[in-house]
Amino acid sequence: MTATARPHTAVLGGGVMGEALVSALLTAGWTADDVDVTERSAARAMELSGRYGVRAADPNRKAVKGADLVLVAVKPQVVPEVLAEIAPALRPGTLVVSVAAGVPVAVYEAALPEGTPVVRVMPNTPALVGKGASGIAPGSHATDEHLALVEEALAATGLVVRVAEKDLDAVTAISGSGPAYAFYLIDAMAEAGVLLGLTRDLATRLAVATVEGSAALAAQTGDHPVVLRERVSSPGGTTVAGVAALDAHGVRAGVVAAARAAYDRSRALGAAARPTPTAEPGPARDE
Ligand SMILES: NC(=O)C1=CN([C@@H]2O[C@H](COP(=O)(O)OP(=O)(O)OC[C@H]3O[C@@H](n4cnc5c(N)ncnc54)[C@H](OP(=O)(O)O)[C@@H]3O)[C@@H](O)[C@H]2O)C=CC1
Ligand SMILES: O=C(O)[C@@H]1CCC=N1
Prior knowledge:
By secondary structure, the chain is of the alpha/beta class. Helices cover 51% and strands 12% of the residues. It has twelve helices and eight strands. Residues 101, 172, 176-177 line the site of (2S)-3,4-dihydro-2H-pyrrole-2-carboxylic acid. NADP(+) binds at residues 12-17, 73-76.
């Protein structure tokens, strides 16, 4: 039996998320020969090449020339310059997928040749261990087949859900940035354990296992979080005392404020990436 051919793929930007994407592609059935990765620093590109066997390509423009799938994983502020660089070299039909926070599909469609299919993705770092959560949204030229290809590319990362683009800033605020909130909670629980006399190692292991187990219980039962919380809370017991203290310290309001701040920041990053009204319209391809 021969393996299914995968589209030749260029990953532009090999930082935290670019590396997660490279790893996910290889787990999903792409071979190392199918994947090129570009980086600003040659040393980082060689590091990824050594770790995964993928080709360290340079520059972005050359990498996309032979690609059927381009994954943009640079910072939002760098997206406009990368699009300007690659636009003339993109082959017709090449699917451009971006994980950049906030940057609207319209920015890609304005910068890339007319008709270029674009899909925006908001992944998160638990993708590194197959436990991620990603929202994906199509641009105006992306078809169901394009979305299916993105789902195939992300198959090893965990949950992938299709959403409307208007919801991606909210997805960013909840699941994109969310791992940091969860790590914040784990760190705070571990620190509290140390305050109460546990060793840091034990307190950290207990906190990690508790958050992991609670997430697994919520996922496997499908029960509402309030129901699950009530099951922990014996009348007049320790848990109601603890949860009352969380409420008294405004922790719920703090989580809502965190998500709102991340949402606003995502929108601001998107606004900053939009071209000024005087900018020239889309470029032509290389001959
Ligand atoms: N980290 C996360 O949890 C998530 C990140 N994202 C998105 O993923 C994108 C990348 O984020 P993250 O991986 O955290 O950031 P990183 O800074 O770790 O990665 C970006 C990488 O791109 C490199 N780079 C910069 N300019 C270029 C260029 N012109 N061509 C090729 N590579 C370049 C950077 O090099 P150098 O450092 O030398 O500039 C860096 O290694 C962002 O747009 C972010 O919004 C989305 C969801 C979650
Ligand atoms: O912090 C950020 O901007 C990126 C996007 C979501 C998670 N990390």
